[in-house]
Amino acid sequence: MDESKLPVLKLALSPPSLAELASAIRDGLQASFATTHVSVSTPPDLREAPFHLAARGLSGNARIADVGGQPNLAPSPNLNAKYDLLTISELMEMPRAGGLLIGAGAGPFHVLGRNTELMPNLAYGSASGGKVHNRTHFAKISEDGGVQCQRIGESTGFGLMCNLLGCDGEMGPLLHIKAKGRRGPANFTQTIRKAVSAVFGEKLISIGGVFVIHAGKVKLHVMPDFPKKPFADRKEVENWLRYFDADAPIVCLSVFHSGDDQELALRMEHTHCFAADGPEKEQRGGHYHFDLDESMGEIEYEGWFNVADTLYRIDQPRS
Ligand code: ZN
Q1: Distance of CA 159 from the midpoint of ligand 1 (Å)
Q2: How far is the CA of 162 from the centre of ligand 1 (A)?
Q3: Which of 97, 110, 138, 241 is deepest in the core (most CB within 10 A)?
Q4: Which residues, including other chains, have CB under 8 Å from residue 296's CB and lie 6 or more apart?
Q5: DSSP assignments along 194-255, one per residue
Q6: Percent of residues in the chain assigned helix, strand, coil, to nearest 5
Q7: Is the pTM of this model over 0.90?
C-alpha cells in the first residue's frame, strides 16, 4: 500500500472560540462534578509531569484526523490497514518544519507482531529540537494475561484505526478543564461533549487534548491479539476485549467530536491512557471507558484541550 495515495476528505470547520467553548463546558461540568474549573489559559510546559507530551504545547494550526476505523477490526482484521504517523502528518497537511501528534489508535501489528492499543505521542522538527521525539506508548496483553504498557521505541507505525490531534506543538492559550468529585452517570469526556452539544447543537466541533487523572480509579480495556476466526457481531468484539481497573495517576490522550458527523463515520470519542510512573513492566494503560463508581467521590480530572480548524477523514472504510 502506498500510504501517500490514501483517500483523504478534508473539511474546513468553523469552530467557536475557546472562550465560547469554555462558557458552554463550564455550565455542563457544574451539573456533573462537585468542583469544577474551566478557563482559557496558557499551560505550563506539557512535556513535564504530569502530562508527559512529546512537545511543549497544543497550539498552532490545530487539526484532527480520523484514520481507518472499526470496520478494519471487525468482522475480520484488515491486515492491509498499516499506517505511519509521519506519513499521516503529511496527509493532514502539517508543516514539515515541526509538529505534534497525539491521540488514540491501534498499535502497528506489522511491527510488534501482534495487535495492541496505541497512545500516539510524537513530535518532530522544531517542536522537538529538530528530530523525531517519540513518547508513544502501547499496551498489550502479556503472556500471564495481565496488561503491559510501555514506550514503543522508534516505530512510528500504527494499524487499523487512529484518532489524532495534530498541531505545531507550540505554547499558547488552551481550554483548561478541571473536575473533581463526579455526581452524575457520564464520564469526563461524555460530560464535555454533552455540554458542547447542548449549546452548539448539530454543528460539528472537533476537540483534542490531554488530561490527567490525579486521583481515583478508571476502567480501561486492552485488545488481545487478533482472534483466529471472524467476529460474529459487536457483542463478540466486546466480550473479546480485556477489561481492567487502573489507579491514578494516569495520562489520557483524547480526541472527540460534537454535532453531526456529516456521514464521515467518525469515531465520536476516543481516549487512550498510559501511566508514566513506576517500573516499566508494571505500567498501566489502555482504552478509557469511565471512572469507577467506587472512586467517584475522589476522582479528579485535569486537562488541556484545543479545538480543530480542519478535519481530515483518511482512508475511510467502505463498509
Ligand atoms: Zn481505543
Answers
A1: 12
A2: 8
A3: 138
A4: 181, 182, 183, 216
A5: HHHHHHHTTS-EEEEEEEEEEESEEEEEE--SPPSS--SSHHHHHHHSEEEEEESPEEEEEE
A6: 20, 40, 40
A7: yes
Residues 257-279 have pLDDT tens digits of: 999 999 999 999 999 999 986 66
**Contact yes or no for 74/231 (Cβ under 8 A):** yes
Going by C-beta distance under 8 Å and a sequence separation of 6 or more, which residues neighbour residue 65?
88, 91, 92, 162, 163, 164, 166, 311, 312, 313, 314
Side-chain-side CA neighbours of residue 7 (13 Å): 8
Three-state SS at 23: helix
DSSP state of 309: S
pLDDT, tens only, 143-173:
888 899 999 999 999 999 999 999 999 999 9
Q: And the C-alpha cell for 92?
A: 493532514
Quick check: helix, strand or coil at residue 151? Answer: strand
Distances (CA, A) of 160 to 6, 83, 98, 107: 13, 8, 26, 8
| Separation of CA 130 and ligand 1 centre (Å) | 30
Helices (H), the chain: 18-32, 85-91, 109-112, 188-200, 234-240
What separation in Å is there between the alpha carbon of 75 and the centre of ligand 1? Answer: 17
Give percent above pLDDT 70 in the chain.
Answer: 97
CB 147, CB 278: distance < 8 Å: no
C-alpha 269 to ligand 1 mean position (Å): 9
Residue corresponding to grid cell 489559559? 41
Tens digit of each residue's pLDDT (9 = 90 or more) over 11-69: 999 999 999 999 999 999 999 999 999 999 999 999 999 999 999 999 999 999 999 99
For helices 188-200 and 18-32, what crossing angle results, to 10°?
120
